[in-house]
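Lab notebook, page 48
Experiment: co-folding of the full assembly
Goal: obtain a model of how the components sit together before planning crosslinking
Operator: M.T.
Materials (sequences as entered):
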Amino acid sequence: MQDIQKSFAGVVALADASLTVAPGEVHALIGQNGAGKSTMIKVLTGAYRRDGGSVTFAGGPVEFTSPLAAQQGGIATIYQEVNLIALRTVAENIFLGREPKRWGLIQWPVMNAEANRLLRELGIGLDVTRPLGEFSTAIQQMVALARAVSINARLVIMDEPTSSLNEREVDTLFGVIRGLKERSVSVIFVSHRLDELYAVCDRITVMRDGRTVYAGNMADISRLQLVEQMLGREIKNEGAQTGFVKSGAGKAGEPLLKAEGIRLGQRLTGASVAVRQGEVVGLAGLLGSGRSELARVIFGADMPDAGEVTLDGQPAHFRTPAEAINAGLGFCSEDRKAEGIIPELSVRENLTLALLPRLARAGVVDTVRQSEIVNRFVAQLGIKTSDPDQPIRELSGGNQQKVLLARWLATDPRLLILDEPTRGIDVGAKAEIQRLIGELARGGLGVLMISSELEELIEGCHEVTVLRDGHSVARLSGDGITEPELLHAMAQGLEPQDIPAQVSP
Amino acid sequence: MLNTNLTGDPRRARLLSLLGQYGVLAAFILLIIFGSLRYEGFLSAYNFSTFLRYNAMFGLISLGMCFVIITGGIDLSVGSVVALSSVVAALLSPYGVVVAVLGAVAAGALVGVINGLIITRLNIQPFIVTLATLLGARGVALLLARNQGGVGLDPGNTALTWLGQGDLLRLPVPGVILLIAFVVGGVALRYSPFGRHALAIGGGEDASKLMGLNVGRVLLGVYVLSGALAGLAGMILAAQLGAGQPTEGLGWELSAIAAVVVGGTLLTGGTGSVWSTLVGALLLGLIFNILNFENGKGIISLSPYWQSVIRGGFLLLVVVIQSRTGRRGRA
Amino acid sequence: MSGTASSARQARSGGGWQTLLADLKQVRASILILLALLIFNALFTPYFLSVQTLNVNLTQVATIIIVAMGMTLVIATGGVDLSVGSLMAISGVLAPLIFLNPVFAGAQWLGIALAFVVPVLVAGAFGVLNGLFVTRLKLQPIVATLVLYIAGRGIAQVITNGQLQSFSTPGFSYIGLGRPFGIPFQVILMLVIVALTYWAVRRTVFGRSVLAVGGNETAAGLSGIPVARVKVAVYAISGLLAGIAGLIVIAINSSSDANQVGQGMELDAIAAVAVGGTLLAGGRAQVLGTLFGALIIQLIRFTLLAKGVPDAAALVVKAAIIIIAVALQQRRRRE
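Observation: model returned without errors.
Model output:
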């Protein structure tokens, strides 16, 4: 793939991105969220049409118009959410659409035997007559691989295949991937787990901001260099990249909110964080480190298996978000579309959604006050909308995010949890939102901010807690929040004894 | 090699799936045993015959509904299609039994084609589309019947009457038709690409498209099948009552849905069993039959109206059990 | 298209009347169809422009509109209520049992008063049951309400043993036959219910919550909206309104027949909602659209009857209207 360009409604998603994969090679594709990996893959598999550049596959230029066409052309994609049919048997999933038939009827014994043979070749033995959904995600992915092999795929794209697998399953998957290599099937492997990339990949392409920023042999780049490439360290040295205005050290005093030893299944294994009044605390960590999960537990959206949450020193185990909201919490989810906006409703309604109970007298919305509040926040946050009654789905991502922020600010919260508040929005809006977060904290609000952007963490936070594999591995504060420290903690984690004890501000 | 059992206690899972699969059958058999011990004449040829004659029609539309629901759709039009086809069969009865039967089935299939095309081409939800054709088919039935309460069969067409009232090898003919339909349906669901693809589409329409299935054609197929089977049921209705019945079949679609649901097929699509559907349909009929006998005994006098209350309660019981076992199975 | 939409928006930021105007603009397709039907009839149907004709049409459609208001709310949350017809039957058989009961022989007014209140509350309680099936047992709305669709009519039939209850109780029948100022009482009731529903959707926390739950359940929950309570409430309201409609039907007929009251009402109500532009996927509630949708369906039937086209053919036209209306709305949304 050469010089691929793609923009969505004027926003550039890919600018001169390139990717070269040799036959029989396992190629790592890595980059932060929004770096353009998925767009790249979707262009390759025909889900999106590219605006410019060229794609060459197996010696000739190709132009796939749909994922199905790409598949028939020899490119199979295995998504994180396995795109097979859980209710059907393993054998059916492998042969769907190409079942062995005689007199128009499916020959089950032949199909099952064939499926068995295929899976055995990949080193997996299982009952192919059981529904696929009975098996773990790992097995499902391998079945998807088997299907890809059986339709003679030349290139298999695996999008974060290991994110929900345990170690043993990962090993098995890697065995299968090596098996593919021997058949000179190429693999594009997308993952955020660095160990895995080193374990299985031959070459690597790093993407950032829609560009290819590094391409080379896996063995030639160190972990730290890799993370630096991914996060774009050198840019930061040019000066302040964010809208934050550092407000000196955090305020002293007892924590407003404290979460300790939170456990939730396999996703949280002892995570702790504390936020004081007037303080922005960053929650850092790679994808899958448990950041959002911790936020959801604090906000009462999920019930933890174990752990303590206190607000003002009092136990605060919220059972529903409504309880958390009443106690003065707000939570901007990471997934704006699925968990934030209500697309059909207007800016006005979206902005006042969490405030509704308080905006009402005897259940009737006080529209005069509602308009006052809406107008105030639209002006204060500079929300660009033709009219507060415009449906929110028509707004840009940055403006939607501002509306969601306003939704919580309108409730006059004491603690705001922001999950990736600046993701997927344009640079201008990003700086504005960052400035706003700083101002709010100076005004006495406690902020817990999940972010994948180092600049945001370094310039905006008084303190940063780093999570890895579901537990807290480091707690940095003040001038101790530096890039090397953060990268180090995120990539490898510190040994437990390295975690600074209670940091005195 | 990987341990393939990663989903908890296999014995318990197996047990729950057995309960899901055979629970309804067990209830059916227990009710028959109960009935035969308690009531005289319950196992008589007469009761057997009338039971099958009447419930064959519900069985047929339930079979079609089963295929539709397997794809994640729904067909509300079948009740009206029964009425329409019964009128068509009656109107065509002077032209011979073949014409009458084929005409009735074709009329039903035509409604199915309309349903399928609107659903797949205009992308409108099956619920709305078949709600509209429910009204439309009823209207056409009434129009064809010239707003008469019924359209008499040609008395000369004894072959057609036989299809509703006659016996074959001492079995009621509608029962035989039902059995054949279910055998064919069972084979189709298990062994034909059509059946498997219907299951796959219900399990994941987007994934099915990605795997290269012709989703539109399969969906069209299930609605045509449902319409045709309702047409067959309509022909039997006309043959049994000796007249086309433009006002019959009210609410039959919901009985059929209930039968499919009781049979363990999820309304979300993707799974389903033809045989459980048959048992589900017969079970709902059996409840009515037993109530009749109970009243005949005269010890307690339950009005026949209790049947809907009991049916509703039974439906609730079944879906609650299903949702419990299903949830555990997933965890 | 976009021009009119933005002007509609500007209007909406103003006061209540402008809001109403903007909402009317949203359903202008149905209004245009309705107007076209009215003009056509005024020109070609003799005696169409008479109070008599107006009253006939409105009384026929009033119960459908009342039930469709509840259905609009249920559908706005992404659900559906198939049980409304059966709940009408339950309410319809309970009322005569109360006001004809010898207990109230001495105080008929009390019996009549209770006959207005109790059946409606019972239907509402069954609605709550529907809501609990959906929220607690996590049943799909179609299946959850199918239970009471089947059992509900059975309950009504069991109560009366399927017998027809005839009565002549003017005090009670007022709900269906009364004519204050020459306007049928049920029409006034219908208008009040429509206005209340419209107002509730537009102005109350509950109405906003309904739309939020239907539009994005996860986001609504994370914003502190009690999703389950909202859902139970819409099914309860649907039940209450079905109860009222049941009373009107038996009052008109001066008799209560468990087999007939509310038969097929669920389909009429859903059709009115669909034609009125409320998406079956939830997240929107076009209360006025539902009103016009029901009126369109009624007027088409009336027009065809007036032209001597049999009722049966009207059914076919009704089917076509539903498909065309929904297809048009979907295309407009995709643009």
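Interpretation: Residues 46-319 of chain B form a domain with the ABC transporter involved in vitamin B12 uptake, BtuC fold (CATH 1.10.3470).
Next step: discuss with group before ordering constructs.
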